[in-house]
Protein 1
Amino acid sequence: MLSLSLFAFLFSCASASASEIMRRNTTACNNSPSLCSLSYGEITHLGAHDSPFVRDASTDYSDFGNQYYNTTVQLSAGVRLVTGQVHKSDNEWHLCHSDCTYLDAGTLESWLSEIKAWLDDNPNDVVTVLLVNSDDATDSELGAVFESANITDYAYTPSSTSAISSWPTLQELIDDGTRLMTFIASLSSNSNAAYLMDEFAYIWENPYDVTSASNFSCLPDRPSTVSGDTAAALSSNRLPFMNHFLDQDIGLGIQEPDVSAIDTTNGQNGTGNLLTSADTCKSAYSGRQPTFILVDFFDKGPAIDVVDKLNNVTDATGRVAVPDTNKEDDSGSTTTSSGTYVGLTELVDDVKSGANPSVGNWIWVGGDWGSILGGGITF
Ligand SMILES: *[C@@H]1O[C@H](CO)[C@@H](O)[C@H](O)[C@H]1NC(C)=O
Ligand SMILES: *[C@@H]1O[C@H](CO)[C@@H](O)[C@H](O)[C@H]1NC(C)=O
Ligand SMILES: *[C@@H]1O[C@H](CO)[C@@H](O)[C@H](O)[C@H]1NC(C)=O
Ligand SMILES: *[C@@H]1O[C@H](CO)[C@@H](O)[C@H](O)[C@H]1NC(C)=O
Ligand SMILES: *[C@@H]1O[C@H](CO)[C@@H](O)[C@H](O)[C@H]1NC(C)=O
Ligand SMILES: *[C@@H]1O[C@H](CO)[C@@H](O)[C@H](O)[C@H]1NC(C)=O
């Protein structure tokens, strides 16, 4: 029975001696040792669609938000691709959803600095940024913002300006310190910032404007040179990018995420579920798994479970559960193939109310994962 001893443990663990604590496995790459030796292009990266556009107290739960938690929380929970739209506002480059009057998530520089800080703190992780270049910023303009955010040292520069047949492994990217992959949709020239990769030179995508759960499609949509032609897309060596988010028409041609269907859309059963869609696309691509899967409200489903399945990951390590502080997303614990992860708030609430948190769950305390046992927590 967990009781006061759990509290005592929770609040004293920061001073626990090194011998009592088994540190998380630092040999993992993107949360799993099994991924280190695999090519960046051969594994599946979970993507948070419109990562900086958050539906939480800070935006008054804006309908223009596509995620419940910010980019730092997303990355810590296992997201490895973050997308956003860059717009020009007051002569600065901002991240805005459709238009800066709808949802302005601040400057691109501030967001890149947030990602830079996360990369500093997580030396075994490779992160991909995809920016929609809504107001046609040049490579020099974007490059200047990347410089100001002091993130260019991490940026990977491709060996070619066209599709690459063999990308480095995660371990190679980690060893080289080039753990930031940057794609821009689109960029006419990158001669002043070679690490800014023109998205559709390297990637092809399936359709994204889906408003019916039965209408998800694996067919290539962009770039137009491979549209509708899976064989051409595959043989072009571009990376398969699977959009998987469901919108609903709310009239006047405006679409917003279909939140009511999100558990199915990001889940593993029901019409339009993520697992079936991913498996269907993998088959359609002759066994090639999508390199990227892009979802709204990434913590629902949870989408990461499907990505773990595609990556054959059963030993995920170092993930931090979402904090369970969003009143519109109070699902609490997150269950993945490697266990159930609970937030501290939820655990404390459980203990206060006399409930016994499930034995075998994991919790992140003081920088380490702890496993909840019958009488307390072990690290
Ligand atoms: C860390 O991962 C390596 C490689 O899979 C494994 O051999 C080792 O036992 C792991 N260490 C811990 C402490 O889990
Ligand atoms: C992200 O969200 C978490 C949890 O709400 C918060 O603690 C943190 O300060 C936020 N980070 C940024 C950079 O906004
Ligand atoms: C920029 O980041 C590097 C590490 O990536 C760090 O060593 C350096 O101090 C940073 N520079 C500034 C001005 O913050
Ligand atoms: C679903 O796809 C079909 C065939 O492409 C199309 O005719 C139909 O309009 C789509 N339905 C919706 C709601 O988008
Ligand atoms: C649907 O999937 C969830 C987990 O994602 C599982 O708990 C549930 O049992 C499944 N339902 C059916 C009918 O398979
Ligand atoms: C996972 O296993 C499947 C089935 O063996 C295989 O097709 C796929 O390439 C593997 N993926 C990774 C990332 O290891």
Protein 2
Amino acid sequence: MGVAVLCGVFYAGVGRNSPKKRTTAEPVPRQSIPSHEEGVYNTVAMELRGAVVILFALFYSSSLSVVHTFQMKSIYCTISDSCDCDFKPDVRGLEWDLYRNLYGQHLAQEVVSEAVGDFIRKENPDRPLVLSFHGASGTGKTLVSSMVGRHLYGTAMSSPYVHQFIPTLHFPLSDQVQQYKMELRRWVEGNLTRCARSVFIFDEMEKMAPGVIDVLIPFLGPDYVLFQTNYRKAIYIFISTAGEEIINDLTLKTRLAGQEREDIRLQDLEASISQAVFNNRNSGFYQSQIIAEKLITFFVPFLPLNRHHVERCARRELCQRGECHRTDVVEAVGGAVNYTPQDGQHFSSTGCKSIPAKVNLFL
Ligand SMILES: Nc1ncnc2c1ncn2[C@@H]1O[C@H](COP(=O)(O)OP(=O)(O)OP(=O)(O)O)[C@@H](O)[C@H]1O
Ligand SMILES: [Mg+2]
């Protein structure tokens, strides 16, 4: 039993190609996509390395107890960059972070912590987790995607298994769409082969040319097969402002009806967000089969923030600077933000964006 586990751990880790560490800001690198020949050499090398490691494991296994197995894994992890070693999911930590540091977003708190928690607990999920975040600017979409990365991998957002794509950076030229599609597919496939638990974050989807994202369709469904990889363990997060009108309208109606924003349920928004992004040319999902085939696990709405939330953001910023007591600055920042709609001025037009700059102004 111990031998089997140890062999599994060693083979799974060492047998894979070692990924180069990349920062999220780098463009999709062509040289990282393995050619067919490289693939053959890599496979032979992988088998040889795997065999050596299995012999090594067998040699030592007779004297191994469970404790030794753990010790061996940690020794192995000091010399390996396998994603199994860096994968340290902390679902409680994620829940706590969402509860403490995300203001006014009860739907995102609930959906993200439950969806990610349930997904991580499954050893063999039957499909990948695909989340799509929607809402106005500055409401916390990118913040939450970073929280997910931070609580899944030991090295957080700098993990080589958490990949962030930004269309204006990675896919800037509109006449290169076919090239981008090819590269994106091979890039995702290459990363999934290296690490089944990869996290892919596609930010600012509204700036993505229509059609590009559909190359991911095979990876998002339950039927795709990749050699040596359970591609269904991956997490995809799409982020866009598309659908914000629908979310903002419902939040406003709820407020004007004298109800709490916490009364808004996911079911009240999911179908209309899905329809809105499908029909919106600037959503990245215009007439996308990803939507038509219902490959998004959850649409996650981010509600517009009101003055109370903006002031919480200002207070947090002040506390981080050791100036917690400056309630005058909190109030000044709350008063300096623009609120919409014109009639009623209920919601911050920029959410909590640029609050640090405003704090600087009044401190
Ligand atoms: N709901 C929130 N709770 C706490 N902080 C928030 C919230 N929303 C935004 N912030 C803060 O405001 C800043 C901007 O947030 P973020 O980048 O997540 O916005 P966004 O929704 O991704 O906006 P955009 O669509 O413009 O990219 C971050 O520093 C974040 O800490
Ligand atoms: Mg953002």
